[in-house]
UniProtKB/TrEMBL annotation:
The chain crosses the membrane at residues 62-80, 154-177, 184-204, 216-239, 259-279, 299-321, 328-346, 469-488. This is MFS transporter, putative. It is a multi-pass membrane protein. Its main location: membrane. The lineage of its organism: Eukaryota, Fungi, Dikarya, Ascomycota, Pezizomycotina. Residues 1-468 form the Major facilitator superfamily (MFS) profile domain. Residues 1-59, 499-529 are annotated as: Disordered.
Amino acid sequence: MTGAATTALVEKNIADHPEGQETHTPEEQPREQDQQQQQQQEEEEEEESDEEENGPPKKKSWRFWAVFPALCVTTFLSALDTSILSTALPTIALDLHIGELYMWITNSGMAGGANDARLIIAGRTVQGIGGGGINTLVDIVICDLVPLRQRGKYVALMAAVWAVGTVVGPVLGGAFAQYVSWRWVFYINLPLCAASLVLLMLFLRVGHPHAPDTAYAWSSWQALVPLLLGLVGLGLFYLHQTSRFCREPSIPRRLFRSATATCALWIAFLQSVLLYWVGYFLPVYFQALRRASATKSGLYVLPITAAIAPLGIVTGILIAITGKYRAFHFLGFACLTAATGLFSLLDEHSPARDWAGFQVLFGAGSGMIFSSTLPPIQATLPESDVATATATWAFMRSFGCIWGIAIPTTIFNARVQALLGGVSDAALRARLADGGAYALASEDLVGQLGDAPRLMAEVLAVYRESLRWVWWIAIPFGGVGLLLCFPIKQLELSEELETEFGLQEGREGREGREGEANGEANKTENRST
């Protein structure tokens, strides 16, 4: 090669490979191109992933919108079952002559065909077991189908359905008791149960990952001992659940390690206590003091139940938009506490604007608390504990229902017994004693005393003062709930749904996309090799 040719070749090589850039042999160039293509593909996948995470929420599939109405029907059934007795219970107690046993009917659910107290209590027991399962499972299913930040909207919609059930319940209960038969208070559940069961069997098909093995058989002592100890009492149940011998407790202690989750669970409990406290004794006020029929008393409690729905929905939407929930706790319990105090001012002469306005205030506070207590509980826990936390939240609400009826009932009966000395008629005193005042809280009693105004005034005074004590003692419960709002922290609510129990349709699509991505990655790896 001549000197000129050599110089030209060197200049061409320098032009093709500027200073600072490596030179490659012909064999290395295809491998470098494959690596660059792989890197570019990975960057594009990351960008697409970021767009999916930061983009708008994904649209729900048709199967979701088929399942959601079924859950609404189920929730409506559960709400109707809890509220329909409130106006019909005095009639049932009077018809079956069960006296002070009426408080057991409210907590127990075969009842339509009962002819004595024992059968109706047994029937309500079975019905109550099913109702408790409904409340828990509906909340868990929603958590499996909806991301944390969006759950507030759907929980609020469920609260609205619950409110409709509680609105319709007292009216239906009073109408059945007055015009048809109180037995239809229980028979009405049958068509609703059938409709809900059909919808859920057709559309609720969720993913269910199977573990490689079962930890304990149902016949083993590890599974049976917790169930049996639960019958012994809440104290022994708690001791067992917190002992080292129970590896999978129903309510793990880790749920209560966070002050936020613990306080949120307890304010859910107190909200339920006050809701049933007021829901079961406002009808007594209307029927005994205002001489309203069972049907009218159901209409008169509409303000409290109607206010729960819109405030619950608005609260859920605002939580979904802003991710903030703490302010609703304070505002909600402030309304509850104020309303319970205002109820003590009511008497037989109170205008409608007072008792209706106080109910709206109470319903607004209850709706805000109902929609805002679950997000902080779930935000403190990993997704694997969401079902357990949701079940615990539902348990606390159901547990509050028991005390929300038992405590005011005890107060009411005790005050009636203490005030019966002011009733001059001995026969009437005997009828009002030992729980009889609740069963006689109706327009019929007042009508019988129309010819004896002095005796009627004495009886009304007993009801008025007894109810006043019921409302006074409710105030500290609201105050404790307000104090429990302070330790709750404002946490970030995730907008991503990470669960193994979502609808199968979405899960299959997700698995298909993952399979395609893995296939492309394998092809790229083979090309590189």
